[in-house]
Amino acid sequence: MSAIDKLKQFDGEYDPTPKNQFAASIESLVDGEYDFEITAAVLKESKDQGIPLLELELNVKQTNTDVQYAIFLNNQIGVNICGQTLCTLGFAELVGQGKKFSAGLEKAVPQLPGIRFHGKKVTKPSEYPGGKSHANLY
Protein backbone atom coordinates (compact mmCIF):
# COMPACT_ATOMS: atom_id res chain seq x y z
CA MET A 1 0.00 0.00 0.00
CA SER A 2 1.42 3.39 -1.00
CA ALA A 3 1.64 6.46 1.22
CA ILE A 4 -1.19 8.08 -0.78
CA ASP A 5 -3.38 5.02 -0.31
CA LYS A 6 -2.80 5.21 3.45
CA LEU A 7 -3.74 8.89 3.50
CA LYS A 8 -7.04 8.30 1.70
CA GLN A 9 -8.59 7.16 4.99
CA PHE A 10 -8.56 10.81 6.13
CA ASP A 11 -10.23 12.26 3.03
CA GLY A 12 -13.81 11.95 4.33
CA GLU A 13 -13.33 14.22 7.34
CA TYR A 14 -10.60 16.46 5.92
CA ASP A 15 -11.14 20.11 6.90
CA PRO A 16 -8.20 22.53 6.65
CA THR A 17 -9.95 25.47 8.31
CA PRO A 18 -8.21 26.66 11.50
CA LYS A 19 -9.81 25.34 14.67
CA ASN A 20 -8.18 27.53 17.28
CA GLN A 21 -10.35 30.26 18.71
CA PHE A 22 -7.58 32.82 18.81
CA ALA A 23 -6.35 34.92 15.95
CA ALA A 24 -2.64 35.01 15.25
CA SER A 25 -0.64 37.84 16.80
CA ILE A 26 0.20 40.96 14.81
CA GLU A 27 3.79 39.72 15.14
CA SER A 28 3.00 36.98 12.59
CA LEU A 29 2.79 39.63 9.85
CA VAL A 30 5.87 40.58 7.88
CA ASP A 31 6.83 44.22 8.51
CA GLY A 32 5.09 46.42 5.96
CA GLU A 33 1.97 48.39 5.11
CA TYR A 34 -1.49 46.85 5.31
CA ASP A 35 -5.17 47.73 5.16
CA PHE A 36 -6.97 46.68 8.34
CA GLU A 37 -10.52 46.48 9.62
CA ILE A 38 -11.21 46.25 13.33
CA THR A 39 -13.49 43.25 13.81
CA ALA A 40 -13.52 43.18 17.62
CA ALA A 41 -12.35 45.40 20.47
CA VAL A 42 -12.22 44.47 24.13
CA LEU A 43 -10.96 46.34 27.17
CA LYS A 44 -9.66 43.74 29.61
CA GLU A 45 -6.83 42.76 31.93
CA SER A 46 -3.90 40.48 31.14
CA LYS A 47 -4.26 37.00 32.61
CA ASP A 48 -0.95 36.84 34.44
CA GLN A 49 -0.48 40.31 35.90
CA GLY A 50 -3.88 41.98 35.63
CA ILE A 51 -2.52 44.78 33.41
CA PRO A 52 -5.27 46.77 31.68
CA LEU A 53 -5.12 46.48 27.90
CA LEU A 54 -7.09 47.24 24.78
CA GLU A 55 -7.19 44.14 22.62
CA LEU A 56 -8.10 44.56 18.97
CA GLU A 57 -8.84 41.85 16.46
CA LEU A 58 -7.88 43.13 13.03
CA ASN A 59 -8.73 41.69 9.65
CA VAL A 60 -5.82 42.12 7.24
CA LYS A 61 -7.52 42.94 3.95
CA GLN A 62 -4.61 41.87 1.72
CA THR A 63 -4.67 38.32 3.10
CA ASN A 64 -8.17 38.15 4.64
CA THR A 65 -6.66 36.85 7.87
CA ASP A 66 -7.32 37.96 11.42
CA VAL A 67 -4.59 39.05 13.82
CA GLN A 68 -4.67 40.31 17.40
CA TYR A 69 -3.06 43.53 18.50
CA ALA A 70 -2.91 44.62 22.14
CA ILE A 71 -2.11 48.03 23.55
CA PHE A 72 -0.99 47.68 27.16
CA LEU A 73 -2.27 50.43 29.44
CA ASN A 74 0.04 49.94 32.42
CA ASN A 75 1.91 53.25 32.17
CA GLN A 76 1.53 56.79 30.86
CA ILE A 77 3.30 55.94 27.59
CA GLY A 78 0.84 53.14 26.80
CA VAL A 79 -2.15 55.31 27.72
CA ASN A 80 -0.84 58.17 25.56
CA ILE A 81 -0.23 55.84 22.60
CA CYS A 82 -3.73 54.41 22.94
CA GLY A 83 -5.20 57.93 23.10
CA GLN A 84 -3.22 59.02 20.04
CA THR A 85 -4.41 55.93 18.17
CA LEU A 86 -8.03 56.60 19.06
CA CYS A 87 -7.70 60.25 17.99
CA THR A 88 -6.25 59.11 14.66
CA LEU A 89 -9.22 56.75 14.23
CA GLY A 90 -11.67 59.63 14.75
CA PHE A 91 -12.37 59.61 18.48
CA ALA A 92 -10.78 62.95 19.42
CA GLU A 93 -14.12 64.14 20.81
CA LEU A 94 -13.90 61.33 23.37
CA VAL A 95 -10.18 61.09 24.21
CA GLY A 96 -8.62 64.26 22.78
CA GLN A 97 -6.77 67.01 24.62
CA GLY A 98 -8.54 68.04 27.83
CA LYS A 99 -10.74 64.91 27.93
CA LYS A 100 -10.74 62.19 30.57
CA PHE A 101 -9.04 59.20 28.93
CA SER A 102 -10.74 56.50 31.02
CA ALA A 103 -14.27 57.77 30.32
CA GLY A 104 -13.56 58.33 26.64
CA LEU A 105 -11.98 54.92 26.18
CA GLU A 106 -14.98 53.22 27.72
CA LYS A 107 -17.25 54.98 25.20
CA ALA A 108 -14.94 54.45 22.20
CA VAL A 109 -14.32 50.70 22.55
CA PRO A 110 -17.83 49.55 21.50
CA GLN A 111 -17.62 51.84 18.45
CA LEU A 112 -14.31 50.44 17.14
CA PRO A 113 -15.51 47.34 15.24
CA GLY A 114 -16.04 48.14 11.58
CA ILE A 115 -13.43 50.90 11.39
CA ARG A 116 -10.98 50.51 8.51
CA PHE A 117 -7.51 52.02 8.39
CA HIS A 118 -4.19 51.79 6.59
CA GLY A 119 -1.25 51.08 8.87
CA LYS A 120 2.38 50.08 8.94
CA LYS A 121 3.54 47.15 11.07
CA VAL A 122 7.09 47.60 12.37
CA THR A 123 8.98 45.17 14.61
CA LYS A 124 11.15 46.88 17.22
CA PRO A 125 14.02 45.03 18.91
CA SER A 126 14.07 44.84 22.68
CA GLU A 127 15.81 47.65 24.53
CA TYR A 128 17.09 45.11 27.03
CA PRO A 129 19.65 42.32 26.50
CA GLY A 130 17.83 39.05 25.95
CA GLY A 131 14.48 40.83 25.81
CA LYS A 132 11.68 40.12 23.41
CA SER A 133 11.09 42.22 20.28
CA HIS A 134 7.64 43.73 19.89
CA ALA A 135 5.41 44.84 17.04
CA ASN A 136 3.99 48.34 16.63
CA LEU A 137 1.36 49.70 14.29
CA TYR A 138 1.69 53.18 12.86
SSE layout and pairing:
Layout: H1 3-7, E1 24-25, E2 32-45, E3 52-60, E4 65-72, H2 76-88, H3 92-95, H4 101-108, E5 116-124, E6 134-137
Parallel strand pairs: 1-4
Antiparallel strand pairs: 2-3, 2-5, 3-4, 5-6
Helices and strands: which structural class?
Answer: alpha+beta
**Percentage of residues in DSSP E strands:** 25-35%
Span between termini: 55 Å
One letter per element, helices H and strands E, the order comes to HEEEEHHHEE
Tell me what the structure shows.
The protein has 138 residues and is an alpha+beta fold. The protein is built from 4 helices and 6 strands, in the order αββββαααββ. It has helices spanning 3-7, 76-88, 92-95, 101-108; strands at 24-25, 32-45, 52-60, 65-72, 116-124, 134-137. The chain has a 6-stranded mixed sheet. The radius of gyration is 19 Å and the shape is elongated.
Short account of what is shown:
By secondary structure, the chain is an alpha+beta fold. The protein has helices at 3-7, 76-88, 92-95, 101-108; strands at residues 24-25, 32-45, 52-60, 65-72, 116-124, 134-137. A six-stranded mixed sheet has the order 1-4-3-2-5-6.
